[in-house]
């Protein structure tokens, strides 16, 4: 089987899994939690693998994995607490009272990040070891911010009113950003941008890719409006959304390439045939999901004024 065939087959399988997990709303959406948690853990391991390749030494990663599990689990529970109401399976009034203490928002997420940072500093101090402390603390902080923190915004985005629609929108816009940039670059790319991290990128690919992505996002939204009960937005609001996601997608893609190039590695891993690793597959969405969340959060608040 050729590399292109592998890439296509595995791309369809993973896309199908993602679509199913974000669409299936039974069992407190535990499948989405499992998918997100699995991707984040694998991504953390790949990120630490890149760091190990950079310094040619083993780095303890248990704390980062543990904090990843805790952060995503707490955010997931806080998100689902909203839907835990009388009549729900296994409902218990005392448990509901405890869950109500969790308020899923940016402050909640920021508080968790602060706790994790506090404990990594404390643990490093208690080790009573100066060597490599800067690198260890910096890598842990990057790992938590780059993966579970960004990826947990999927739950925040879903938690907005009409959240499922927004998840679909950002998934489509991100996929079309990659597709538009690739095909426009191949067809019309002439003038290189000059990025050291990705020397083959062209101005034509970026500009025309952005135009194509914007058109496809508008088509997707118009189809959604015609057949589903979705929020009403104007042309300007959807255009700005598409631009925000497009720019975030470029940053996400180039940032992961930057890390890999500095580590001297082509792919973050060989886990997914034809695609590389989890980071290679999700690099753009790690940035586009938070960008979409803050955009739609602000737009919703403006509509309430």
What do these coordinates show?
The chain folds into two domains: 1-159, no CATH class; 161-305, no CATH class. Helices cover 74% and strands 0% of the residues. The protein has twelve helices and no strands. The protein has helices spanning 3-23, 30-55, 62-81, 93-99, 106-126, 133-151, 153-159, 163-188, 203-227, 235-263, 278-282, 285-304. The longest helix is centred in the C-terminal third of the chain and has 29 residues, at 235-263. The chain starts with a helix and ends with a helix. The model has no long low-confidence stretch (mean pLDDT 90).
SS content category: mainly alpha
Give helix % range.
Answer: over 70%
Number of domains: 2
- Mean pLDDT across the residues is 90
> What would you report as the Rg, rounded to the nearest angstrom?
20 Å
Major sheet attributes: none
Q: Could you give the order of the helices and strands?
A: HHHHHHHHHHHH
Number of strands: 0
Distance between the termini: 56 Å
| Unreliable segments of 5+ consecutive residues | none
Overall body shape: globular
Number of helices: 12
- The share of residues in extended strands comes to under 5%
